[in-house]
Amino acid sequence: MINLYFHTSDLAKRKMLNWFHDQKIDVQTRNIMKKRLTELEIRHLFLLSDNGSDDLIAIHSKAVQEHVFDKGLTFNQLVIAVYQHPKILKNPIVFNEQSLVTGFNIEDIGIFVPSKQRKRERLSLLGKLYTAEFGKVSGSSSTGKLNYVND
Known about the structure:
With 151 residues, the chain is α+β, with helices and mostly antiparallel strands. The chain has a single domain (3-134), classed as Glutaredoxin, CATH 3.40.30.10. The chain contains 7 helices and 6 strands; from the N terminus they run E-H-E-H-H-H-H-E-E-H-H-E-E. It has a 4-stranded mixed beta sheet with strand order 2-1-3-4, covered by helices on one side. The chain is elongated and about 65 Å long.
């Protein structure tokens, strides 16, 4: 299951939801200001991230600017800070069992497209490319090979 956590309904969140809708991928959404994250859930997000706090904390956000955060915080202190001030997290955060992405970047969120669907899309694109390059496929010959016709 793909989860999307957000704390504000900004453009990145709307783009992310629209992209998942267009891909016909179900996403479970959660406003973390209305239903706060538990400390265990926060730890899980850090576990999924590749670069720890760099992936999750919005260091240039107003929320971080309003609260003095020492770069020397221990992991437990950082978890408590996120628990107390969830707006210090980047927005949105989307994740599944193996991957986590923050913000809206079309290249990054492609990892959430199921592999079978990615393969179908890749084959379709290759078919279009081949047709554009060599012409249309007219069917098979008696040898079982495809015949290509240039228009």
